[in-house]
Amino acid sequence: MTSYEEKEAPPTGMEISNRPAGEKEDMSKRTYIRWDAEGVEQVPPNEAEDIQAVADMINDLQKMQWNNHRHCYTGTHARTQGLVKGKLVVPDDLPKHLKQSLFQHGGEYQVVARYSSEPGDPGLDDRIPQPRGFALKVFDVPGEMFEAGKDAPTHDIEFNSTPALDLADAKTTKEIIGLRIKYGGNQPELYKKLDARNDTQLQKARDTVRNTHLESTRQYSQTAYRFGDYVAKYCLVPSTETQRKLYDETVKPDQHESDILSKWLSNFHSAHDAEYLLQFQLCENLVDQPVEYAGKIWDPEKYPWQTVARLEIPKQDSFNYELKSFWEDHMRVDPWLGLKSMQPLGSPNRLRRVASSKLRRTMNARKEVTVKSMDEVPGPIPAPLAPSA
Question: If you ran DSSP here, which 8-state letter would residue 340 be given?
């Protein structure tokens, strides 16, 4: 098993995943670690210097992008594969231990979402296996916000298709990005450097991920977050039979075009509704479930996923050009602007707080737009989401 692998067993209902039917444990009886407990976060020496070094390298990469494309993109997830609008549905009857933060009360929240490829190259060929991403901006959320986002009642939720993060902490990120910059055009030499590391398997796994239809792909937070009183990771699981069947549809380099993932998404969303289960995996043991190091998967058999909400995406055009331009050039997706009760935790998330670059706004001469409601997002609202006349 590589460091990226986890059992793919998408559930069919609102139950706990990765646990056979008939073995439903009362998860409320477990002891979960509080988010503010001693040892949850432990900032290592020199982390601030490592984070600044990473921020500087990301800016250098963005300048290289601008030189190649005469347009500057984000340091990661630069290639948009699709954009959709939908709603997040929170049930009224969650058990007490899951009634946390945004999920404390039942309700429905409008969302806009983006599918992406994880690397920082917007021209990356879809036929090249790499991690894929998904991001949600949730509107009209109740609760106390971080100071930087206090004027917008939104919360951003970010995902990646691999459960473990190769840029596992600030120190690792500095080392790996440095190697990718130096040897990115020479994979044999890069692999020699990676083979000399203790985390070789984790670092090389990104090049062998399963290259499949994005609508069938399970997505993960990779890093830990505050979940109200507790600590958790989260994932998004395709839950319709149509989506699950697409898991067998993989990219074939000798048969498919370089933009096949976008085309598959467009064909799917034009003909089908989509549905995902949003699940959380609560922390019970900081040795088994480290917060500071995101390169280790929290064992889902030992610490099961628990469903807290359902994401519904009605049929629609999944590649609106105006929305694509608006998201890439004007919108900001950053959980450090959202709910304090879902605070990002651990070294990779402290890095993200600092390394969120404003350089691309400057180089593209674009202003950041603080979006407060779905009405401010370009593109049509699908009929099932539109308010009644």
Answer: G
Question: Dihedrals φ, ψ of 253, to 5°?
Answer: -55, -30
Least Cα distance to 170 among 40, 355, 292, 348 occurs for 348
pLDDT bin (cut points 50, 70, 90) of residue 13 is very low
Q: Are strands 306-313 and 274-282 parallel, antiparallel or unpaired?
A: antiparallel
Kindly tell me if the per-residue pLDDT of 1 is higher than 50: no
What's the Rg (C-alpha) of the chain?
A: 20
CB atoms within 10 A of CB 86: 23
* Helix (H/G/I), strand (E/B), else coil: 231: strand
H helices within 29-150, ranges in order? 47-69
Please tell me the distance from the alpha carbon of residue 182 to that of residue 60, in angstroms, as a whole number.
12
Query: CA nearest 275: which of 246, 313, 306?
Result: 313
Q: Which pLDDT score is estimated for 315?
A: 97
- Quickly state the pLDDT bin for 127 (edges 50, 70, 90): very high
Cβ-contact 72, 59 below 8 angstroms: no
Task: Annotate 138-156 with DSSP letters as a single string.
Answer: EES--SPBPGGGTTS-EEE
User: What does the DSSP assignment read for 206-220?
Assistant: GGG---B-GGG--EE
CA atoms of 373 and 109, how far apart (whole Å): 10
Tell the residue number behind the tokens 């002891």, with chain if given: 31
How far is 125 from 107, CA to CA, in rounded Å?
39
Contact status, residue 121 vs residue 78, Cβ threshold 8 Å: yes
Q: Which two tokens stand for residue 285?
A: 């043991």
Query: How far is residue 254 CA from its own chain's centroid?
Result: 29
CB burial readout 209-241, b (16+ within 10 A) else e: bebbbbbbbbbbbbbbbbbbbbbbbbbbbbbbe
End-to-end CA distance of the chain: 54
DSSP 307-324: EEEEEEE-S--S--HHHH
Nearest to 294 by CA among 222, 194, 226: 222
> What pLDDT sits at residue 384?
81
Q: What is the mean pLDDT of residues 323-336?
A: 95
Residue in the structure block whose two tokens are 């370009």: 378
Q: CA 343, CA 350: separation in Å to the nearest integer?
A: 10
Give the CA count within 13 Å in the CB-facing half-sphere of 154.
28
Is the pLDDT at 12 greater than 80? The verdict is no
For 236-258, the pLDDT digits (tens) are: 999 999 999 999 999 999 999 99
